[in-house]
Amino acid sequence: MKSRNEFADGRARIFNSALQSIKLPQVTSEKEIFLAETS
């Protein structure tokens, strides 16, 4: 049951991040800017 939930969680996370990158291309650029500022 636990591993099944973790598997579904991982799939949902991947799906949500994929949707966000498709819907909001500026999110990835903001992430890159943030990474550049922190490094």
- Low-confidence parts: none
What do the pLDDT scores average to?
76
**Assembly of the depicted chains:** single chain
Q: Please give the number of β-strands.
A: 0
Structural class: mainly alpha
Q: Using the alpha-carbon principal axes, give the shape.
A: elongated
Helical content stands at over 70%
Q: What would you report as the Rg, rounded to the nearest angstrom?
A: 14 Å
For the report, how would you describe the main beta sheet?
none
| Number of H/I helices | 2
Distance between the termini: 40 Å
Note the run of SSEs as H and E: HH
Q: What proportion strand? A: under 5%
Question: Describe it for me?
Answer:
The chain is mainly α. 92% of the residues lie in helices and 0% in strands. The protein contains two helices and no strands. Helix 1 packs across helix 2 (25-38). The radius of gyration is 14 Å and the shape is elongated. The model has no long low-confidence stretch (mean pLDDT 76).
